[in-house]
Write a structure and sequence with these properties.
Mean pLDDT: 94
CATH superfamily of the largest domain: Bira Bifunctional Protein, Domain 2
Shape: globular
Number of helices: 5
Largest sheet: 7 strands, mixed
Helix content: 10-25%
Structural class: alpha+beta
CATH class of the largest domain: Alpha Beta
Low-confidence stretches: none
Order of helices and strands: EHEEHEEEEHHHEEEEE
Bound molecules: biotin
Distance between the termini: 39 Å
Number of strands: 12
Length: about 240
Protein backbone atom coordinates (compact mmCIF):
# COMPACT_ATOMS: atom_id res chain seq x y z
CA UNK A 1 0.00 0.00 0.00
CA UNK A 2 1.28 3.47 -0.78
CA UNK A 3 2.49 3.14 -4.34
CA UNK A 4 1.62 5.49 -5.88
CA UNK A 5 0.85 8.00 -3.14
CA UNK A 6 -0.63 11.50 -3.28
CA UNK A 7 -0.37 13.90 -0.37
CA UNK A 8 -2.51 17.03 -0.14
CA UNK A 9 -2.32 19.96 2.30
CA UNK A 10 -6.12 20.14 2.23
CA UNK A 11 -8.88 18.14 0.59
CA UNK A 12 -12.65 17.90 0.97
CA UNK A 13 -12.36 14.21 1.79
CA UNK A 14 -9.52 11.79 1.03
CA UNK A 15 -12.21 9.18 0.28
CA UNK A 16 -13.74 11.41 -2.40
CA UNK A 17 -10.34 12.05 -3.98
CA UNK A 18 -9.55 8.30 -3.88
CA UNK A 19 -12.94 7.40 -5.41
CA UNK A 20 -12.27 9.83 -8.27
CA UNK A 21 -8.71 8.56 -8.70
CA UNK A 22 -9.95 4.97 -8.74
CA UNK A 23 -12.47 5.85 -11.46
CA UNK A 24 -9.61 7.36 -13.42
CA UNK A 25 -7.77 4.01 -13.19
CA UNK A 26 -5.52 4.25 -10.12
CA UNK A 27 -4.02 0.84 -9.29
CA UNK A 28 -4.55 -1.41 -6.28
CA UNK A 29 -2.57 0.02 -3.36
CA UNK A 30 -2.72 3.68 -4.38
CA UNK A 31 -2.92 5.94 -1.33
CA UNK A 32 -4.26 9.44 -0.67
CA UNK A 33 -3.32 11.38 2.47
CA UNK A 34 -4.13 14.92 3.57
CA UNK A 35 -3.10 17.26 6.39
CA UNK A 36 -6.69 18.45 6.73
CA UNK A 37 -10.13 17.78 5.24
CA UNK A 38 -12.90 20.33 4.90
CA UNK A 39 -15.72 17.78 4.54
CA UNK A 40 -14.35 14.62 6.19
CA UNK A 41 -17.03 11.95 6.30
CA UNK A 42 -17.81 9.25 8.84
CA UNK A 43 -20.15 6.27 8.77
CA UNK A 44 -23.92 6.69 8.73
CA UNK A 45 -23.72 10.17 7.25
CA UNK A 46 -21.77 11.66 10.16
CA UNK A 47 -19.00 14.24 9.82
CA UNK A 48 -15.38 13.51 10.78
CA UNK A 49 -13.69 16.53 12.36
CA UNK A 50 -10.57 16.94 10.26
CA UNK A 51 -9.19 20.42 10.66
CA UNK A 52 -6.36 19.83 13.09
CA UNK A 53 -3.41 19.37 10.72
CA UNK A 54 -1.99 17.00 13.37
CA UNK A 55 -3.91 13.81 12.65
CA UNK A 56 -3.95 11.12 9.96
CA UNK A 57 -6.50 11.14 7.13
CA UNK A 58 -5.83 8.28 4.74
CA UNK A 59 -7.65 6.51 1.91
CA UNK A 60 -6.37 3.43 0.09
CA UNK A 61 -7.64 2.07 -3.20
CA UNK A 62 -8.13 -1.71 -3.27
CA UNK A 63 -9.03 -3.87 -6.22
CA UNK A 64 -9.96 -7.28 -4.75
CA UNK A 65 -10.36 -10.20 -7.15
CA UNK A 66 -13.84 -10.67 -8.55
CA UNK A 67 -15.98 -12.96 -6.44
CA UNK A 68 -14.19 -12.29 -3.13
CA UNK A 69 -16.70 -11.43 -0.43
CA UNK A 70 -15.92 -7.94 0.88
CA UNK A 71 -18.76 -7.42 3.34
CA UNK A 72 -16.46 -7.65 6.36
CA UNK A 73 -13.60 -5.69 4.81
CA UNK A 74 -13.97 -2.85 7.32
CA UNK A 75 -13.47 -5.32 10.17
CA UNK A 76 -10.21 -6.45 8.56
CA UNK A 77 -9.09 -2.84 8.28
CA UNK A 78 -9.86 -2.44 11.99
CA UNK A 79 -7.67 -5.46 12.79
CA UNK A 80 -4.80 -3.93 10.79
CA UNK A 81 -5.18 -0.52 12.42
CA UNK A 82 -5.30 -1.96 15.92
CA UNK A 83 -2.27 -4.17 15.31
CA UNK A 84 -0.37 -1.25 13.78
CA UNK A 85 -1.10 0.90 16.82
CA UNK A 86 -0.53 -1.85 19.40
CA UNK A 87 3.15 -1.08 20.03
CA UNK A 88 2.08 2.32 21.38
CA UNK A 89 -1.35 1.38 22.65
CA UNK A 90 -1.53 -2.33 23.51
CA UNK A 91 -4.91 -1.78 25.17
CA UNK A 92 -6.54 -0.34 22.04
CA UNK A 93 -9.86 -2.05 21.33
CA UNK A 94 -12.24 -2.44 18.42
CA UNK A 95 -15.85 -1.38 18.78
CA UNK A 96 -17.90 -3.32 16.24
CA UNK A 97 -18.02 -2.74 13.42
CA UNK A 98 -14.81 -0.78 13.08
CA UNK A 99 -14.03 2.00 15.50
CA UNK A 100 -10.71 1.99 17.32
CA UNK A 101 -11.13 2.89 21.00
CA UNK A 102 -8.73 3.56 23.85
CA UNK A 103 -10.20 3.69 27.33
CA UNK A 104 -13.66 3.84 25.77
CA UNK A 105 -12.82 6.94 23.72
CA UNK A 106 -12.56 6.99 19.96
CA UNK A 107 -9.02 7.14 18.55
CA UNK A 108 -9.82 6.19 14.97
CA UNK A 109 -12.60 5.43 12.53
CA UNK A 110 -12.94 3.61 9.23
CA UNK A 111 -15.15 4.33 6.23
CA UNK A 112 -15.14 1.80 3.36
CA UNK A 113 -16.89 2.68 0.11
CA UNK A 114 -17.18 0.42 -2.93
CA UNK A 115 -18.28 0.66 -6.52
CA UNK A 116 -18.79 -2.33 -8.78
CA UNK A 117 -17.18 -2.47 -12.18
CA UNK A 118 -18.85 -5.54 -13.66
CA UNK A 119 -18.18 -8.25 -11.09
CA UNK A 120 -15.05 -6.58 -9.75
CA UNK A 121 -15.27 -4.33 -6.73
CA UNK A 122 -13.36 -1.07 -6.68
CA UNK A 123 -12.95 -0.23 -3.01
CA UNK A 124 -11.81 2.83 -1.11
CA UNK A 125 -10.79 2.17 2.46
CA UNK A 126 -10.60 5.41 4.43
CA UNK A 127 -9.39 5.81 7.97
CA UNK A 128 -8.72 8.63 10.35
CA UNK A 129 -6.46 8.33 13.39
CA UNK A 130 -6.15 11.08 15.98
CA UNK A 131 -2.41 11.46 16.46
CA UNK A 132 -1.29 14.88 17.68
CA UNK A 133 -4.47 16.68 18.57
CA UNK A 134 -5.00 17.33 22.24
CA UNK A 135 -8.13 19.46 22.21
CA UNK A 136 -11.42 18.21 20.84
CA UNK A 137 -14.36 20.49 20.14
CA UNK A 138 -17.68 20.37 22.03
CA UNK A 139 -19.33 16.97 21.81
CA UNK A 140 -16.02 15.20 21.12
CA UNK A 141 -14.42 16.44 24.34
CA UNK A 142 -15.44 13.33 26.26
CA UNK A 143 -15.76 10.82 23.47
CA UNK A 144 -12.55 11.22 21.45
CA UNK A 145 -8.87 10.79 22.20
CA UNK A 146 -5.50 10.85 20.43
CA UNK A 147 -2.11 9.17 20.69
CA UNK A 148 -0.82 12.39 22.20
CA UNK A 149 -3.46 12.31 24.93
CA UNK A 150 -2.98 8.64 25.70
CA UNK A 151 0.83 8.44 25.76
CA UNK A 152 2.97 9.67 28.61
CA UNK A 153 5.93 9.98 26.25
CA UNK A 154 5.93 12.30 23.23
CA UNK A 155 3.50 11.16 20.55
CA UNK A 156 5.05 9.68 17.41
CA UNK A 157 4.83 11.68 14.19
CA UNK A 158 2.04 11.04 11.70
CA UNK A 159 4.61 9.52 9.33
CA UNK A 160 5.80 7.08 11.99
CA UNK A 161 2.22 6.07 12.77
CA UNK A 162 1.39 5.52 9.10
CA UNK A 163 4.62 3.57 8.62
CA UNK A 164 3.51 1.07 11.27
CA UNK A 165 -0.12 0.95 10.22
CA UNK A 166 0.46 0.22 6.53
CA UNK A 167 2.35 -3.10 6.88
CA UNK A 168 -0.06 -4.25 9.61
CA UNK A 169 -2.96 -3.37 7.34
CA UNK A 170 -1.39 -5.26 4.45
CA UNK A 171 -1.01 -8.38 6.61
CA UNK A 172 -4.61 -8.20 7.86
CA UNK A 173 -5.97 -7.66 4.33
CA UNK A 174 -3.90 -10.50 2.90
CA UNK A 175 -5.27 -12.92 5.50
CA UNK A 176 -8.81 -11.59 4.95
CA UNK A 177 -8.71 -11.89 1.15
CA UNK A 178 -7.26 -15.43 1.45
CA UNK A 179 -9.63 -16.78 4.10
CA UNK A 180 -12.43 -14.29 4.73
CA UNK A 181 -13.24 -12.83 8.14
CA UNK A 182 -13.02 -16.34 9.66
CA UNK A 183 -9.24 -16.21 9.09
CA UNK A 184 -8.85 -13.12 11.28
CA UNK A 185 -11.73 -13.55 13.70
CA UNK A 186 -9.23 -14.62 16.37
CA UNK A 187 -7.39 -11.33 15.90
CA UNK A 188 -10.59 -9.31 16.29
CA UNK A 189 -12.71 -10.93 18.97
CA UNK A 190 -10.23 -10.81 21.89
CA UNK A 191 -9.89 -7.05 21.34
CA UNK A 192 -13.56 -6.30 20.80
CA UNK A 193 -14.83 -3.72 23.28
CA UNK A 194 -18.37 -5.13 23.14
CA UNK A 195 -18.01 -8.89 23.60
CA UNK A 196 -19.31 -10.01 26.98
CA UNK A 197 -20.84 -6.61 27.66
CA UNK A 198 -24.41 -5.31 27.76
CA UNK A 199 -25.07 -3.31 24.60
CA UNK A 200 -27.82 -1.29 22.99
CA UNK A 201 -28.58 -2.39 19.45
CA UNK A 202 -30.18 -0.20 16.84
CA UNK A 203 -33.24 -2.08 15.55
CA UNK A 204 -32.45 -0.71 12.08
CA UNK A 205 -36.18 -0.30 11.36
CA UNK A 206 -36.02 3.45 10.99
CA UNK A 207 -37.76 4.17 14.30
CA UNK A 208 -34.56 4.79 16.25
CA UNK A 209 -35.68 2.10 18.72
CA UNK A 210 -32.93 0.27 20.57
CA UNK A 211 -32.95 -3.04 22.40
CA UNK A 212 -30.70 -4.10 25.24
CA UNK A 213 -28.75 -7.31 24.71
CA UNK A 214 -25.54 -9.11 25.61
CA UNK A 215 -22.85 -9.20 22.93
CA UNK A 216 -21.78 -12.84 22.56
CA UNK A 217 -19.10 -12.65 19.88
CA UNK A 218 -18.66 -12.48 16.14
CA UNK A 219 -19.85 -14.87 13.45
CA UNK A 220 -17.48 -16.16 10.77
CA UNK A 221 -18.88 -13.61 8.33
CA UNK A 222 -18.33 -10.70 10.73
CA UNK A 223 -21.90 -10.25 12.02
CA UNK A 224 -22.12 -9.34 15.72
CA UNK A 225 -23.97 -12.01 17.71
CA UNK A 226 -26.17 -10.73 20.53
CA UNK A 227 -28.75 -12.25 22.86
CA UNK A 228 -31.73 -10.45 24.37
CA UNK A 229 -32.49 -11.86 27.82
CA UNK A 230 -33.13 -15.57 27.31
CA UNK A 231 -33.87 -15.27 23.60
CA UNK A 232 -31.95 -17.04 20.84
CA UNK A 233 -28.72 -15.47 19.53
CA UNK A 234 -29.44 -12.81 16.94
CA UNK A 235 -27.21 -11.46 14.20
CA UNK A 236 -26.52 -7.74 13.87
CA UNK A 237 -25.26 -7.03 10.38
CA UNK A 238 -25.35 -3.27 10.09
CA UNK A 239 -26.14 -0.07 11.92
CA UNK A 240 -24.72 0.93 15.23
CA UNK A 241 -24.22 -0.61 18.66
CA UNK A 242 -23.43 1.15 21.93
CA UNK A 243 -22.23 0.00 25.32
CA UNK A 244 -25.18 0.21 27.70
CA UNK A 245 -24.62 2.97 30.28
C1 LIG B 1 -16.36 6.75 11.34
O1 LIG B 1 -15.87 6.52 12.44
O2 LIG B 1 -17.56 7.01 11.22
C2 LIG B 1 -15.48 6.70 10.14
C3 LIG B 1 -14.55 7.87 10.04
C4 LIG B 1 -13.67 7.81 8.81
C5 LIG B 1 -12.84 9.05 8.64
C6 LIG B 1 -11.81 8.93 7.54
S1 LIG B 1 -10.65 10.25 7.53
C7 LIG B 1 -10.04 9.75 5.98
C8 LIG B 1 -11.22 9.29 5.16
N1 LIG B 1 -11.82 10.41 4.45
C9 LIG B 1 -13.06 10.68 4.89
O3 LIG B 1 -13.79 11.61 4.46
N2 LIG B 1 -13.42 9.82 5.86
C10 LIG B 1 -12.35 8.86 6.11
Amino acid sequence: LGRPREHWAELGSTNDRALAWARAGAPHGALVTADAQTTGRGRLGRAWASESGEDLYVSAILRPHAGKPIGALGLAVGVGLREGLASWLPAAQLKWPNDVLVGGRKLGGILCEARWVGSSPEVVVGFGVNVGRSLFPGPLADSATSLRRELETAAPSRDEVLARILPALERALEAFFAGGFAAIRGRYEPHCALVGRTVLVDMANGTGAKVQATALGLADDGALLVREEEGPPRRVESGDVWLAP
